UniProtKB/TrEMBL annotation, chain A:
Its main location: membrane. It is a multi-pass membrane protein. PANTHER family: HIGH-AFFINITY BRANCHED-CHAIN AMINO ACID TRANSPORT PROTEIN BRAE, HIGH-AFFINITY BRANCHED-CHAIN AMINO ACID TRANSPORT SYSTEM PERMEASE. The chain crosses the membrane at residues 84-104, 152-173, 204-224, 244-267, 279-302. It comes from Ancylobacter oerskovii. The lineage of its organism: Bacteria, Pseudomonadati, Pseudomonadota, Alphaproteobacteria, Hyphomicrobiales. It comes from the Bacteria. This is Branched-chain amino acid ABC transporter permease. Keywords: Cell membrane, Membrane, Transmembrane, Transmembrane helix.
Automatic annotation (TrEMBL), chain B:
GO terms for molecular function: ATP binding. Signal peptide: none annotated. It comes from Ancylobacter oerskovii. This is ABC transporter ATP-binding protein. InterPro entries: AAA+_ATPase, ABC_AA/LPS_Transport, ABC_transporter-like_ATP-bd, BCA_ABC_TP_C, P-loop_NTPase. It comes from the Bacteria. Keywords: ATP-binding, Nucleotide-binding, Transport. Residues 6-240 form the ABC transporter domain. SMART domains: AAA (SM00382).
From TrEMBL, chain C:
InterPro entries: ABC_transp_permease (IPR001851), BCAA_transport_permease (IPR052157). The keyword Transport applies. It is a multi-pass membrane protein. Belongs to the binding-protein-dependent transport system permease family. LivHM subfamily. Its main location: membrane. This is Branched-chain amino acid ABC transporter permease. The keyword Cell membrane applies.
């Protein structure tokens, strides 16, 4: 999966386009750019467990939602905003490490189900623990006192920063012993253990990495919208959408998940704007076509072309 | 006798009510080449799985360099220098040949970095004669080459004890000769080798000492020549009737 | 004690409904190794067809039962034959994503045509009392029907050639192929049966609970829990899983409030996943 210059070029262009939107576009476009950056970070995070390691994880919404809540609760307790995000990241990371040590014993479908159930259990616990979380009524957060445009720009750059951190982490892991070991686990877990890879520790590391950036994005998202509730924070749709984005771009690659997220969010926006009644069905069609005609993701198109034929 | 490098004391393995291994004991001296034979279903692969931590032993002690390692995990066995090959080869199919071997050097062979591991991998590919295929995806190799890849991967782990589980199964006779020459070369480099086979001919050409496993029990342990003449071994292999006829034939 | 008899009765009735709801999902998962994300929408589709037949033409749900079953079987068979079979041996993530995409389409179509308004077939059958326990008759009939349908599937799986072929494919695909079984066709039939069972569960549910597209996810979740708790791919597994879930939800609802009933179900599922991943009556080593 060596990431070639093409991947870096695409990433640089993509990030520059997002970062420059405040210079020439209206607030709606800047907001969309921030959403692209956020989903880019989520998909890039998922890539550690789903792309590198090949474990079909559907825990994204759990980490995102817990990030929302830990961040919100900290901020309501008077913790400064950025520190609250950091606490949320660390706490959810620790939670993922503990949870991973338990559920990563499962494989295949069982792991997939276990990871979805985690989202549901988190949502239900948050909904019923009213004294801490406000239950179904949700929580209000202190709003930033700047003008709407400034707030939008600020959160665009926050989301971009999280995205860039997740990409740097991916590039580092890709070249390291950890990345090599995760790819071995993906291909043959028994053989990986037999060559000396501590598979449990490596999988837990991948699962934890897949959680921290989601938590950071969740905490920032909570501060951005100023209000969170359990249904919004723990969406099953999000937990399935994020792996689809990563696959759309190319799971297991550096640039793929971000590019897939960008393509998906933009398509979604277009469908929402033009086909209000049918946007969900159209996305469904896109997913079905993707599975049949582009199983390696968008990046595989570019790779095929540059390789000049079948590999 | 020198301190054994690997020693099993009363190892048992039960699957529910089924006794796969009963009270198995033996010791390997450093640098020794020993054959482990037994009919199909005797428990040979189970024994390897127990020694390398893939399956936990039900009771008994497994001493590696004097330390009890019965509770180890597979990756710990690999890092200690207890390597094995699989009867059914287990490559990382989408990776190239050299990447497969690099994994062995990096995680089992204690390489300091991915680059160092690659250098070590190149050496073991040269050793087994696979260097020309280094950049092929592992899935594309023919069976004989895949078996060599398995050997190269294990060698890159810098093993002290190497357990070869039916490395010759499915090979034709010229390929077997090549593999035997290679195993001899490995043994000469000082690695302790345990060859698991059910083809007696193969084992006899490599090892002076044989262990015989039958119905999960170690029924013989000694010099190869004596073992092949042992009545119980012949019985285990050929069945009682045939053994009796063979005996009559000798007496006549 | 009276209250517990009532809870027990409610739990068992709910459990039979859950078994019927999940058994098709379990079959598809066990035989095809595909998690069918469409299952919840199939149930709702069956329910809607029943409601519209009742309100539009006055057709009784019991008459709709075979009609819905046949329609859903055809839909499932066609989907598997034309679409899912092409990637049926791909990794989990691929087949799951595909059925999720298909579900988005079906969900959208249903919401567009039927809207998300909750609808229920009101049969007004009254209630009966058995000692301290009061049972609404529609629910009682629904429960009985759910049990009969589930057991009918069991009889088909055990007694018919198709059923035996499905079991053979489930046990060992390549051996089944060697025996001359056309696995692709068996897959299509299995998926058809899965959809059929979802559809008839929908007919039953429409006469007991309000039907709306908003609950497709909830029903899918129940199917997951029942499969994992009971063990996937077998009718007895679905029955045990359904009854256990019904009882647990009923008890948890009484002790901790209705909201916690669902949580209890998921916690039960996670506990079973981690301690006995093959389910309460599942076959060990079959994953």
């Amino acid at each position: 999966m060596r990431s070639g210059p093409l991947a870096y070029a695409l990433l640089a262009v993509g990030i520059l386009v997002l970062a420059s939107t405040p210079l020439y576009a209206d607030n709606y476009v800047v907001r969309t750019a921030a959403i692209v950056a956020m989903y880019g970070a989520l998909a890039t995070s998922w890539n550690f467990i789903g792309g590198f390691t090949g474990y079909p994880s559907f825990s994204t919404a759990a980490f995102f939602g817990l990030g929302c809540y830990v961040g919100a609760i900290c901020q309501r307790a008077g913790v400064p905003m950025v520190l609250a995000w950091l606490i949320a990241t660390l706490m959810v990371g620790a939670f993922a490490a503990l949870l991973g040590a338990i559920i990563l014993r499962l494989k295949g479908h069982y792991f997939a189900i276990g990871s979805i159930a985690v989202v549901e259990v988190c949502r239900l616990i948050v909904s019923s623990w009213s004294s801490l979380t406000g239950g179904g009524d949700g929580l209000n957060l202190p709003l930033l006192t700047w003008g709407p445009e400034q707030v939008m720009r600020f959160f665009l750059f926050v989301m971009l920063a999280i995205l860039i951190l997740s990409l740097i982490a991916t590039a580092l892991v890709d070249r390291s012993r950890l990345g090599f070991g995760l790819r071995c686990i993906h291909q043959n877990e028994d053989a990986a253990a037999m060559v000396g890879i501590d598979t449990t520790r490596y999988k837990v590391a991948a699962y934890t990495l897949s959680a921290v950036f989601c938590a950071a994005a969740g905490a920032a998202y909570a501060s951005w919208t100023g209000y969170i509730d359990p249904t919004e924070s723990f969406q099953i749709l999000m937990t399935v959408k994020v792996p689809v984005m990563a696959m759309l771009g190319g799971a297991g690659t550096l640039a793929g998940p971000f590019l897939g997220a960008a393509a998906f969010v933009l398509l979604e926006e277009v469908f929402w704007a033009n086909f209000l009644d049918w946007n969900r069905a159209i996305l469904g069609v896109v997913i079905v076509l993707l599975v049949f005609f582009l199983p390696g993701g968008l990046l595989s198109l570019a790779r095929k072309r540059s390789a000049g034929g079948p590999a | 006798m020198t301190e054994p490098i690997l020693k099993l004391e009363g190892v048992c393995k039960n699957f529910g009510g089924l006794k796969a291994l009963t009270d198995v004991s033996f010791a390997l001296a450093p640098g020794e080449v020993v054959g482990l034979i037994g009919p199909n279903g005797a428990g040979k692969t189970t024994l390897v799985n127990v020694v390398t931590g893939k399956l936990p032993a039900s009771t008994g002690r497994i001493l590696f360099e004097g330390k009890d390692v019965a509770a180890q995990k597979p990756h710990e066995a690999a890092r200690r220098g207890l390597a094995r090959t699989f009867q059914i080869v287990q490559p990382f199919p989408q990776m190239t040949v050299i990447e497969n071997v690099t994994a062995g050097a990096l995680f089992g062979g204690g390489a300091a970095s991915v680059g160092d591991a690659r250098d070590m991998a190149r050496k073991s590919l040269d050793f087994v004669g696979l260097a020309p295929l280094a950049d092929r995806p592992a899935a594309q190799l023919a069976l004989a080459a895949r078996k060599r890849l398995e050997l190269a991967k294990s060698l890159a782990m810098q093993p002290k004890v190497l357990m070869l589980d039916e490395v010759n199964a499915g090979l034709n006779s010229s390929e077997i000769d090549g593999a035997l020459a290679l195993i001899r070369k490995i043994a000469e480099s000082g690695v302790t080798v345990l060859i698991i086979e059910h083809l007696m001919k193969v084992v006899l050409s490599l090892s002076k000492r044989l262990l015989v496993l039958h119905h999960g029990q170690m029924i013989a342990d000694g010099p190869a020549k004596e073992i092949v003449a042992d009545e119980r071994v012949i019985e285990a292999y050929l069945g009682q009737k045939y053994a009796a006829r063979l005996k009559e034939l000798h007496h006549a | 004690m009276a209250i517990y008899s009532q809870i027990l009765a409610n739990g068992l009735m709910l459990g039979a409904l859950y078994a019927c709801l999940a058994v098709g999902f379990s079959l598809v998962w066990g035989v095809l190794n595909v998690i069918n994300m469409l299952h919840g929408s199939f149930i709702i589709l069956g329910g809607y067809l029943t409601w519209f037949a009742w309100h539009g033409w006055g057709i009784h749900p019991i008459v709709m039962l075979p009609v819905v079953g046949a329609l859903l079987f055809a839909l499932g068979f066609a989907l598997q034959k034309l679409v899912i079979n092409r990637v049926v041996s791909a990794p989990v993530l691929t087949t799951l994503t595909l059925t999720f995409g298909l579900d988005m389409i079906l969900y959208n179509v249903m919401t567009y045509w039927f809207t998300a308004t909750p609808r229920r077939v009101q049969l007004d059958l009254g209630a009966v009392s058995l000692g301290p326990v009061t049972l609404p008759v529609d629910r009682l009939v629904g429960t009985a029907l759910a049990l009969v349908l589930t057991l009918a599937l069991y009889a088909v799986m055990r007694g018919s050639n198709i059923g035996r072929a499905i079991v053979a494919v489930r046990m060992d695909r390549s051996a089944a192929e060697l025996m001359g079984i056309r696995t692709e066709r068996i897959y299509a039939i299995t998926f058809g049966i899965g959809a059929l069972m979802a559809g008839v569960a929908g007919v039953v549910f429409a006469s007991v609970f309000p039907i709306t597209t908003n609950v497709t996810g909830t029903y899918l979740g129940k199917a997951f829990v029942v499969c994992v708790v009971g063990g996937l791919g077998s009718v007895p597994g679905a029955l045990v899983g359904g009854l256990v879930l019904g009882l647990v939800e009923s008890l948890a609802g009484h002790w901790f409030g209705p909201q916690q009933a669902i949580t209890a179900g998921f916690v039960l599922m996670l506990a079973i996943l981690l301690t006995r991943p093959t389910g309460l009556v599942g076959v060990r080593g079959y994953e």
